[in-house]
Specification:
A 5-stranded mixed sheet has the order 3-2-1-4-5. The chain has 8 helices and 5 strands; from the N terminus they run βββαααβαβαααα. The protein is of the alpha/beta class. The two termini are 16 Å apart. The chain is globular, with a radius of gyration of 18 Å. The longest helix is centred in the C-terminal third of the chain and has 16 residues.
Length: 230
């Protein structure tokens, strides 16, 4: 199972009002383990940054000037998510913005399976706050690096939240660390765009045997209400 935990930063709340994506951040999980591969890019929204939005994510017109336009990175982004299941917090927001960007360049909407962690959390913890900050507090996930919203950092935090919700997080697992992601398609923040590099734990060197695969499939087939069907 390949999950792409995804977040975006935007110029506002609605693509229908002309708002655009200014940052995309993704973290790859395979079988509920971080692989070390991430994708991150800042984008020129081709419009002025509203003051209110800049206060949330800190991305100014000056910072975004000269960054690529969505059309320039669409292929790399789609290559990264390719066959993965997209995991997002309030997924309708992020996927709606990405589909609007794809429409602008004449490309079809995303066809990935979408998992909304807000929906998962509300079902598992009815009545509790399900904001990303609240869930990080619930699971004692360190958010000290989160002075402002950032798509890659929020994806790293959300990946930990997601693994807690589905029961896959390992003790001591931390995705938001300071080093360099691995993988041929990994794209990360670096000195070229003004943000620090990051790293995550490398994948385990293990391929399941045919017996293990058969046992795993038998277990999956025995489940009556798996979380990925919610």
């Amino acid at each position: 199972m390949r999950d792409i935990v995804l977040d975006t930063e935007t110029t506002g709340l609605s693509p229908a009002n002309g708002d655009r994506v200014v940052e995309i951040g993704c973290v790859e999980l395979v079988n509920f383990l971080p692989t070390g591969r991430t994708y991150q890019v800042y984008l020129d929204p081709e419009m002025p940054m509203p003051f209110e939005a800049e206060q949330i994510h800190g991305l100014s017109d000056d910072f975004l000037r000269g960054k690529p336009k969505f059309a320039e990175i669409a292929d790399a982004f789609l290559d990264f998510i390719q066959d993965g299941q997209v995991v997002a917090h309030n997924a309708k927001f992020d996927v709606g913005f990405l589909n609007a960007e794809l429409e602008k360049i004449g490309r079809p909407h995303l066809t990935s399976t979408i998992v909304d962690t807000v929906r998962l959390a509300r079902k598992k913890y009815p009545g509790a706050s399900v904001s990303l900050d609240a869930l990080c507090r619930k699971f004692t996930i360190d958010t000290t690096a989160r002075e402002k919203h950032g798509a890659l950092l929020d994806s790293e935090l959300l990946a930990q939240v997601y693994l807690e919700i589905v029961g896959g997080r390992q003790p001591g697992l931390t995705l938001a660390t300071d080093a360099t992601p691995q993988g041929p398609q990994a794209a990360v923040t670096n000195s070229d765009n003004g943000a620090p590099t990051r790293d995550v734990r490398p994948p385990r060197d293990h391929q399941p045997s045919d017996t293990e695969r058969a046992a795993h499939q038998a277990f999956i087939d025995s489940l009556t209400e798996p979380v990925w069907n919610w």
